[in-house]
Amino acid sequence: MKISSVALVSVLFAVWSLAPVHAGVRSVPPIPLSADASASAAASSGGLIDPISGAVSVGYDSKYIFRGADLGKNSIWGQLEFEFPLGDYDLGFGTWYQNPVDGSHLNPAGEDELDLFVNLYRDFGDLSAWLGYTAYLFPEAGGGDTHEVGVGVGTPVGPLDLGLAAYYDFELANGTWYFEVTAGHSIGLTDRITFALIAGIGYEVADDLDVSDFTHVDLIAALPIEISDSTTLEPYIAGVLPLDGRDAVQDDALYGGITLSVTF
User: Fold this and answer.
1) Cα–Cα distances in angstroms (integers) from residue 124 to residues 48, 53, 89, 130, in the given order
2) Calpha distance 200→221 (Å, rounded)
3) Which of 56, 124, 130, 147 maximizes the CB count within 10 A of its CB?
């Protein structure tokens, strides 16, 4: 769910790996399907448009944190996404739905959210780039829908995987920019278990509200576990520290969750 104008007066990070997405710490756009799933689809056809691969994910988050803002507690969510190669590009599209069981200060009624997204990805050597669009819809609220475009890049630098992204929401406060910088590192513990650590910082500009502030710093530790070649279980724990743009309306928070993803 997007932050209200009142909250603005007073996400969160771009994941570097091609792993299943989980909502509480999800990026926008949702990250591409796993490398294995994409490679399997590409190998089956050599045409311009190869067969579509996809993923189904379900998850639970003790808090739904989006770009540093607490938008609900005990959130249950699901996502369906598809991806196919398109020449030198990969086209991804899908939908994500979440419904928090309990509300929060910024979402007291615990209203649900439905996202529709489409993204275009391309690699330039070690540099990965994407361009995307997301529609944020709020069925229970009966209004407040917004539409956003985004662009981002990611690349390894030494032991870190760095990401930079920019988003523009057309409706939120009559036009709002959001920027984020992230850094991550992963360590393979076994052939099927990886430990991943990701840190990020956000910055928001809303001219209509005279807002130009750092929003938050967050740190996420995740443990993706490959149950099979197509199924991944991913528990995580995270902390978020609100900065100038959020500390008046929100306290520091520690939260966690778990995701189950199946690729096809």
Assistant:
1) 19, 22, 10, 11
2) 12
3) 130
| pLDDT tens sequence across 110-165 | 899 999 999 999 999 999 999 999 999 999 998 899 999 999 999 999 999 999 99
The secondary element (H helix, E strand) that includes residue 244 is: none
Q: Quick one: 5-263 is in which CATH superfamily? A: monomeric porin ompg (2.40.160.40)
Write out the two tokens for 128.
């990965």
Tokens of 163: 């990401």
Per the rule left: phi > 0, alpha: psi between -120 and 50, beta: everything else, 99 is beta
Q: Rounded to an integer, what distance in angstroms lies between the CA atom of residue 16 and that of residue 39?
A: 18
CA torsion sign for 25, 163, 179, 115 is: negative
Beta bridge partners of 177: 168, 205
Count Cβ atoms below 10 Å from residue 39 Cβ, excluding itself. Answer: 11
The closest alpha carbon to 100, from 113, 89, 90, belongs to 113
The residue written with tokens 């995740």 in the block is: 222
